[in-house]
Amino acid sequence: MARLWLSCLVLPALVVSAAANVAPTFLDNMTRVQLPEDLPVGAEAFWLVAQDQDNDKLTYGISGQNAYFFTVTPDTGKVELASPLDYETLYWFSIIISVSDGQNQVQKEMQVIVEDRNDNKPVFQNTAFSTSISETLPVGSVVFSVLAVDKDTGSAGAVVYFIEEVSVSLCRSVGPAAPHGHQGAASPAEPAGTSRVGVTTAAAVAQPWSPGLLASGPQEGAS
Questions:
Q1: Which string of b and e fits 154-192 if b means at least 16 CB within 10 Å?
Q2: Is this structure's pTM higher than 0.85?
Q3: What's the pLDDT score for residue 106?
């Protein structure tokens, strides 16, 4: 009878001990992260951080259809970029982050916001930059127009136009900054000569807009 009574005392004690293990919890800021689209693959993106009242060893993970963007070190929670980000393709998405203490696993949705960067070159929509100018054409008249489109948004998508090279004597002039998808026009700097003048080799350089660009003129090597 004494042995049976001892077993009855030990069993409730084991049950109470097992129920006392508390599940880990993520920190309150583990809901959203903002990353620049030009973050290099392999670079540190962010850290998963959780707390556990029992001081158990924690193991971290990432899952979901967009989990391929990241790799996580299970023991530390360090997250690195595994696939390139592109604002123009996917500017936000969600992932499922998880943490386990060996007995309890906790999952939580995290939003990833991709920040736009000036990472796209403007592309000309018309490439024939050859025209003829009449000797009677007034100064300030439109000679020809070009159009370049930049996939970036906001100020990063604004385009500035330049005349880089012509076969006749024209002053290099800088046109006004053109919003995304708008045309820039070229005007003659002085009246034409006594005959029709052919612009045979004209290359206009469209560059992403940046402060001070109008004052500095076209940058070398731009294309």
A1: eebbbbbbbbbebeeebeeebbeebebeeebebbbeeeb
A2: no
A3: 97
